[in-house]
Design goal:
Layout lengths: L4 H8 L4 E4 L22 E4 L2 H6 L10
Parallel strand pairs: 1-2
Amino acid sequence: MRRTAATLAAMAGRITIAEVEELVEPGELSPDAVHLPGVFVQRIVELTPAQAADKQIEKRTVRA
């Protein structure tokens, strides 16, 4: 298992809430597409299409 920042934060918290745009059946996603294993998630909030469209996305920046 990769130890990403999301995984470490979820392991440190008592409750982890995943905000998702779409729920899919188990096995539909490639393991490489999963950022946080489900074993660390206690609650799921599914966004409506309007909420997903208005969602603010963080911008990744890197130094030149």
